[in-house]
Design brief:
The protein contains four helices and no strands. It has 119 residues and is mainly alpha-helical. The chain has one domain (26-118). Helix 1 packs antiparallel against helix 3 (64-84) and helix 3 runs antiparallel to helix 4 (88-118). The longest helix is centred in the first third of the chain and has 31 residues, at 23-53. The protein starts with 22 loop residues before the first helix and ends with a helix.
Length: 119
Amino acid sequence: MPLSLDHSDGTSGLMNPLPKIPWGAVFSNFLWIVGAAVILAAISYHDYLASQKKEKFINLLKRNSFKKPLFSGLFLVTAGIALSVHFLWLSIIMGILAIFVLFMTANTYKRHNIKKHDQ
């Protein structure tokens, strides 16, 4: 019996084709990971500012310079989770939460621009 490298699917056994990359899952996971990184960076930066300015950390968290990246990161996290979960009810809840956080983010940016314009 001769040695055959042919598989039943018609491919030779020498090189297996690469599996298809699930780009939807990659993108949705990318969103929430970047969002978490933005939130952590904002917390870290404002902790550093508090130590440099000898100010209370909680006072810096009330500023728009913290709220903007916080809400932007929260939007990315909630949108990424909404796209990556496999339960429809959970996806809907996270989608609604993402829309709510998007409005909060827009409101924070809008309020900051109004204050900047008035000065």
